[in-house]
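User
New here, help please:
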Amino acid sequence: MVRIDCLIFGYRKIKIPKDAVAKVTTRFLHMGVSVKISSDGEFTVRERDREKAHTALSGIEYTESECLGLLGAYKKIKNKPLVFSAVAVCMLFSSLSSCVVWDVRIDGNERITDAQIALELEGAGLSVGAPWWQLDRSKIEATLLRNSSEISWVNINRRGSVAYVSVAEKHTTDGDKSVVPSGYANVVARADCVIEEITVKRGVATVKQGDTVKKGDVLISGVLPAEAGGGFCYAEGCVIGRMSDTIGVTVERSYVKKSEKSKKIASVDLKIFNFSANIFKSYGNSDTECDIIKEIKTFSLFGKALLPLEISIDYATEYSKEACEYTDSEMVSVASARLTMLTDLALTHADLLKIRTSGHFTDTGYVMSNELVFTADVSSTLEFASE
């Protein structure tokens, strides 16, 4: 049985006299060449170890086969234009077909139909034919949760060219009547703000639109007044507040630039269904710093969801460091990109009303900031015990 790494990256069979097997085996061991030896004195050598094998066989008669495995097949057909073109077209089509969404499968829904969820997903950017590289699954999940009042959780996974969407619906009892929480609680402000909108589901509102509140102030009270029957309840509701914030970044003019020196395959793992196998792994230490970069390729053979394969490749990327300086325009560009990312993160669960951007150069770099005015849900539940 030939090892799978030999099948993929190519190998050769070398035949030597039986009386020289022990000598050649010893040479291979000293040179660190991995080989497989048959009972009749035939060695299976990886294509990448061919030159080392020739050195080990110095002074010994041997016969060598042509390159075998996938690499050998490639060498045979590369000079045959029609055959090579056909294989290349098939591989290209297979690669491109796995880069787009060919099917969307939904599970976990009971009351909501697949068609309703599919329509919501299409509005968020996920539909059949959409390129995978343009899809931000986290953003699509957030958009679906924001736009749907009947879904409490969603997760989108990719398997080959199929998008698997799992959802959890919001559960209710007695028709549309929500389950009443046990215990007692107030709804308080989680930040300083100006009240823009307040919706009370249970309890008594203690503020109104336009009021200015501090963090921790009670917005909806769980203490009921006498005219409402008195007693306590578990206050619930939604309070939208207007807030302001300033986000800033600093970019130093001097920085360290990392330059890639070489990129080598460190390991290759093959996964078929739930079975994983390491088919290649290199050993040895590097004298320079290096990063490990992972690349995962997923595809299916013989149609959708049949024999799904996943190849995971780790690359050891060696790099060197060099002291550099940004130009003025480069500092502004870098600061703008960083500030945009931080602003998007800050506004994940908020609606932007106003933004003012400013920046200035310093002795050592550039400072840029965004002054934001936005609205968001500022309600936070604070439980309490009745006396």
Notes: The first helix runs from residue 4 to 9. The chain has eight helices and 20 strands. The radius of gyration is 32 Å.
